[in-house]
């Protein structure tokens, strides 16, 4: 590698790029059309960046003020060129842009695509949006010639996509006055991408609403023919836009290749004026669980792209894709002004409220369509129940749950409240990490016997938001594993009511006292249970103490100093408990072993291990030996 930047320099791709290019070249995709959309999108971004820079430096536009993208075909040479008159790149930017991958989630994309060496590959390419590198799906060599606006120097980048690339100075006469020219030397099986009808179809379908005019030159020496006029879709009236136009625009702005699950298009007028075009994706974006949790809405000011880092939506709406175009914000917005602007804060509030409002209408008018949205993004929306106090009631109305009575259907809290039993005073829920285990929990027995519905919450965020949303429409939310079950006011079926004893017998009371003294500091209390109908024992959190599931999560994260002692509940109607309660003091050693085994049984039923596996094994051996004498 030479150190003289005036000479040709050969460099190896960054490891992630090399791996990505290998998959591009050696995998076969049924739909490679997306490469043109990606290159046009990059070119449009470059033009938008120049428009933004030219606000403070008008001289950058020179004698060519109108942004333009030109697609030129050369069928004889099997060559396709995409050229823009945008911001262009200097040498360092060229290396950074085309030699490395900085975009978060790239590894996730590559792992998914490696696992999809089948028909799913085409959808993955469109879903993730691989930008410039998608050119290597159709080209065995790619050349880039670029000149940064305001610079005299031009640079040439070239690669065959096999592990390295070359950078060299470009002759001034062979470079754009400004902007970037991407030349694709097409593979034999991709030569059809020079055919005018195919290029026109691809441009109209995928990039017909790019904010920059797109022209086509069908062969060398031919005239330019405009294919897309650069009219911003979001400023048009909704009645003038076809569903397919929305879909095409969504695919371009989101980098996905699915159908949008919901389209939200409106113009705010009055004190503040702005246009919004937003989409709820039809599938989960690959960066949905990116730890930075940044939004993906773009900010425009009078159709000039400003930034995609304005955080126009709260983090729990980060799956929404689209843009906001303001008529009121100053064009020379700096990062500091974006963060502090009260006008932008008002726009954030208005856009967020409108998106949630439209989702609420969809949930009411088309429950099946909304159920698909919740399936994909419910776990993220529930973050808002924990974070957004102002909109918590609205988010609770949007929330959907599985329950002990719902099967595979989703239930709203309004559905739950409408089905509450006579005497029921709370919305009951249970948190955990596995629905099947929750459904088998002994803590549910008394609720199931009375036909009381219990929400089954299995997402980690559930353990947190339920502590921040204490009620819905006047009905408190209560964990079935925390404190008393409060089931005495809810009637049992007649056949079970006959065997229900409201009084604790003296023998059971004595046995409870024995368990308390034997288990000592392992538990905070022992109580007769009205939530158990079949099982002998269960553990619950003390009244006012944290739910046991949230304690597990905090402990796993190293954020729990001292765990609360659980309450051991016994079923006073269980045959085993009744028999144990009748044993006298002559069986003291056996009763002590049984007391610890009952506690460990309750721990296992709760998803934990015995407190002392060795002692558990020894006690179990003694009990078995006694039973076979």
Percentage beta strand: 15-25%
The number of helical elements comes to: 21
In the CATH hierarchy, the architecture of the largest domain is 2-Layer Sandwich
- Number of domains in the coordinates? 4
Mean pLDDT: 85
From the N-terminal CA to the C-terminal CA, the straight-line distance is: 85 Å
CATH topology of the largest domain: Heat Shock Protein 90
Query: What structural class do the secondary elements suggest?
Result: alpha+beta
CATH H-level superfamily of the largest domain: Histidine kinase-like ATPase, C-terminal domain
Strand order, largest beta sheet = 1-6-5-4-7-3-2-8-9
The amount of helix comes to 25-40%
The total of beta strands comes to: 22
Largest sheet: 9 strands, mixed
Provide the low-confidence segments as ranges: 1-5, 102-110, 117-129
Radius of gyration: 33 Å
CATH class of the largest domain: Alpha Beta
What general outline do the C-alpha atoms trace? elongated
Strand and helix map with partners:
Blueprint: E1 9-12, H1 15-26, H2 34-53, E2 69-74, E3 79-84, H3 91-99, H4 106-114, H5 121-128, E4 139-147, E5 154-159, E6 164-169, E7 179-186, H6 196-207, E8 214-217, E9 225-228, H7 243-254, E10 262-268, E11 274-280, E12 296-301, E13 304-307, E14 321-326, H8 335-340, H9 342-365, H10 367-387, H11 392-398, E15 402-403, H12 413-418, E16 427-431, H13 435-439, H14 445-449, E17 454-457, H15 462-468, E18 471-472, E19 475-479, H16 494-497, H17 506-519, E20 525-528, E21 537-540, H18 548-556, E22 567-570, H19 575-581, H20 588-605, H21 613-627
Parallel strand pairs: 2-8, 12-14, 16-17, 16-19, 20-22
Antiparallel strand pairs: 1-6, 2-3, 3-7, 4-5, 4-7, 5-6, 8-9, 10-11, 11-14, 12-13, 15-17, 18-19, 21-22
């Amino acid at each position: 590698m030479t150190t003289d930047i005036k000479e040709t320099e050969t460099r190896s791709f960054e490891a992630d790029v090399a791996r990505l290019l290998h998959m591009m070249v050696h995998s076969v995709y049924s739909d490679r059309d997306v490469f043109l959309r990606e290159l046009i999108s990059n070119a449009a971004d470059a033009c938008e960046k120049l428009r933004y820079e030219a606000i403070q430096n008008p001289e950058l536009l020179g004698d060519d003020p109108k942004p333009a993208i030109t697609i030129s075909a050369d069928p004889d040479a099997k060559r396709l060129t995409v050229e823009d008159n945008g911001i262009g790149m200097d040498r360092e930017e060229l290396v950074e842009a085309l030699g490395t991958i900085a975009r978060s989630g790239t590894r996730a994309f590559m792992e998914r695509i490696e696992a999809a060496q089948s028909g799913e590959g085409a959808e993955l390419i469109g879903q993730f949006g691989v930008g410039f590198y998608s050119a290597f799906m159709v080209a065995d060599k790619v050349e880039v010639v670029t000149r940064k606006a305001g610079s005299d120097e031009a640079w040439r980048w070239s690669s065959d996509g096999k592990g390295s690339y070359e950078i060299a100075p470009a002759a001034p006469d062979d470079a754009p006055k400004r902007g970037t020219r991407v030349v694709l030397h097409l593979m034999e099986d991709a030569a059809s991408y020079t055919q005018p009808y195919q290029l026109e179809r691809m441009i109209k379908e995928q990039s017909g609403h790019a904010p920059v005019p797109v022209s086509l030159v069908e062969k060398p020496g031919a005239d330019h023919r405009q294919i897309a006029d650069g009219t911003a879709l979001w400023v048009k009236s909704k009645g003038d836009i076809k569903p397919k136009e929305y879909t095409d625009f969504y695919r371009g702005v989101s980098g996905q290749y699915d159908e949008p699950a919901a389209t939200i298009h409106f113009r705010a007028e009055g004190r503040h004026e702005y246009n919004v075009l937003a989409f709820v994706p039809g599938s989960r974006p690959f960066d949905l669980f990116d730890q930075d949790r940044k939004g993906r809405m773009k900010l425009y000011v009078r159709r000039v792209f400003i930034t995609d880092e304005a955080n126009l939506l709260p983090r729990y709406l980060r799956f929404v894709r689209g843009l906001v175009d303001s008529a009121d914000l100053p064009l020379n917005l700096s990062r500091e002004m974006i963060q502090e602007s009260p006008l932008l804060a008002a726009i954030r509030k208005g856009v967020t409220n409108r998106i949630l409002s439209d989702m609420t209408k969809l949930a009411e008018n088309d429950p099946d369509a909304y159920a698909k949205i919740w399936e994909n993004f419910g776990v993220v929306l529930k973050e808002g129940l924990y974070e957004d106090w102002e909109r918590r009631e609205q988010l609770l109305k949007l929330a959907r749950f599985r329950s002990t009575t719902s099967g595979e259907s989703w239930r709203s809290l309004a559905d739950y409240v409408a089905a509450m039993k006579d005497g029921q005073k709370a919305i009951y829920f249970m948190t955990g990490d596995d629905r099947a285990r929750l459904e088998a929990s002994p803590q549910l027995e008394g609720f199931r016997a009375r036909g009381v519905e219990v929400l089954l919450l299995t997402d980690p965020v559930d353990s947190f938001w339920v502590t921040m949303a204490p009620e819905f429409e006047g009905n408190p939310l209560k964990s079935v594993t925390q404190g008393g079950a409060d089931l005495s006011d809810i009637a049992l079926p007649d056949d079970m009511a006959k065997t229900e004893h409201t009084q604790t017998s003296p023998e059971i009371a004595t046995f409870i006292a024995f368990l308390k003294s034997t288990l000592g500091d392992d538990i905070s209390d022992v109580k007769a249970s009205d939530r158990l109908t079949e099982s002998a024992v269960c553990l619950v959190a003390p009244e006012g103490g944290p739910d046991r599931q949230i304690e597990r999560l905090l402990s796993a994260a190293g954020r729990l100093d001292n765990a609360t002692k659980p309450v051991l509940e016994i079923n006073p109607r269980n045959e085993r408990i009744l028999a144990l309660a009748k044993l006298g003091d002559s069986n003291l050693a056996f009763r002590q072993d049984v007391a610890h085994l009952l506690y460990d049984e309750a721990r296992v039923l709760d998803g934990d291990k015995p407190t002392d596996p060795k002692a558990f094994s020894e006690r179990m051996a003694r009990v078995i030996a006694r039973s076979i004498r």
